[in-house]
Amino acid sequence: MFDSIAIAGATGAVGRIIRKLLQERKFPHKKITFLASERSAGSTIEFAGEQHTVELLRPEAFNDIDLVIGSTPDPVAAEFAPWAVEHNCVVVDESGYWRMDPKVPLVVPEVNPEAALSHQGIIASPNCSTTQMVLAMKPLHDAGKIRRVVVSTYQATSGAGVSGEQDLQEGTRASLEGKDYQYQAFAHPIAFNLIPQIGSSKHAGYTSEEMKMVYETQKIFEDESIRVCPTCVRAPVVNCHSESMLVETEKKISVDAARELFAATPGIKVIDDLESGQYPMPKDCDGDDAVFIGRIREDLSSENGLAFWCVSDNLRKGAATNAVQIAELLVDKAVAAG
User: Fold this and answer.
1) pLDDT, tens digit, 9 for 90 and up, residues 31-61
2) Is the pTM of this model over 0.85?
3) What CATH fold (topology level) applies to the domain 130-313?
4) Taking residues 278-288, what's their average pLDDT?
């Protein structure tokens, strides 16, 4: 049990959702502390009907704190996590900094919960696009062992932060009015457009966002033989990432079997009726913690292939919800241990 918990980056977009989730899910604690940068330190926020002063994120802030959930930029996470561990505090980190550290487990609770229990003070939560993909892969991998995944993402502007959402809204308004707009988050207009680059050029023509999906997937499944071919695209959608997935398995899985496997998996919701126009769409998945799957069909180009469409709220399951679920795993372990 964690008597004293904290949120690092408490005033950010994901931090706000973490606060909301801790209340909704009645996360057990006796004391909660909210930490942020100098820009937000000293401000007040309401939590569970009480006003709290936001404290400065610094080494001394972790005195007597048992657990911290962090959602901060990578350089901040690189600095604060060791501070917390030195104070015997467990860190669940949402940033990208610790994900590929071999000493740090990378966890999606519905996929590899046991990994969280081997932590050495820090547990990482994956990239948002990876999180929904591996959850969709999990039942198929268990049933037929996945050999290869071809995935194209259509990622919402909220994944680029507040400035990304602003770019979509203000850029769209400017475009409709025939005016110029200076984009902040994106190198190209996002209004009425698709941008086939997320992140920097990384490896053999793939971007950093795409290579995260490769490396993180292999780490989560502890299987470097799984081949992943990703294309990451920024789409003019406010929230919820969508992914078109083609999965090839060693053992053939029928469409009906796949649908049953998805429906039986915690954290997945199936909406799959093409004839009546029922399938997951970002506007319907916003604010939900599930990974939604539809358009399930056999791949016409390979014998053991399945194609499907996958949508999830990137700020919730892709970020805040997954981090809170990891923290809940640790609580359950502590309760079980007595």
Assistant:
1) 999 999 999 999 999 999 999 999 999 999 9
2) yes
3) Dihydrodipicolinate Reductase; domain 2 (3.30.360)
4) 97
* Cβ–Cβ < 8 Å for 326, 125: yes
Q: Evaluate if residue 145 carries a pLDDT over 70.
A: yes
Enzyme catalytic residues: 128, 241
Sort strands 122-124 and 146-155 into parallel, antiparallel or unpaired: unpaired
Q: How far is CA 226 from CA 145, 295, 300, in A?
A: 9, 23, 21
Can you point out the beta strands (E) in the chain? 4-8, 31-36, 44-47, 50-53, 55-56, 67-70, 90-93, 122-124, 146-155, 201-203, 206-207, 227-234, 241-249, 268-270, 291-298, 305-312
Contact 54, 312 (CB under 8 A): no
The DSSP line for 209-236 is: HHHHHHHHHHHHHT-TT-EEEEEEEE-S
In whole angstroms, what is the distance from residue 209 CA to residue 197 CA?
8
Closest CA to 220 of 132, 304, 91: 132
- For residue 257, give the H/E element and its range: helix 255-263
Strand order in the sheet with 122-124: 55-56, 31-36, 4-8, 67-70, 90-93, 122-124
Q: In the predicted model, what is the mean pLDDT of residues 9-23?
A: 95
pLDDT value of position 44 = 95
CB burial of residue 200 (10 Å; 0-12, 13-18, 19+): exposed
Domain 4-127+319-337 architecture: 3-Layer(aba) Sandwich (3.40)
- Residues 6+ positions from 54 with CB-CB distance below 8 Å: 10, 11, 34, 35, 36, 40, 41, 42, 43, 44, 45
Question: pLDDT confidence of 333, banded at 50, 70, 90?
Answer: confident
Coil, strand or helix at 23:
helix
Domains of the chain by residue range: 4-127+319-337, 130-313
Neighbours of 300 (CB within 10 A): 7
- In tens, the pLDDT along 186-206 reads 999 999 999 999 999 999 999
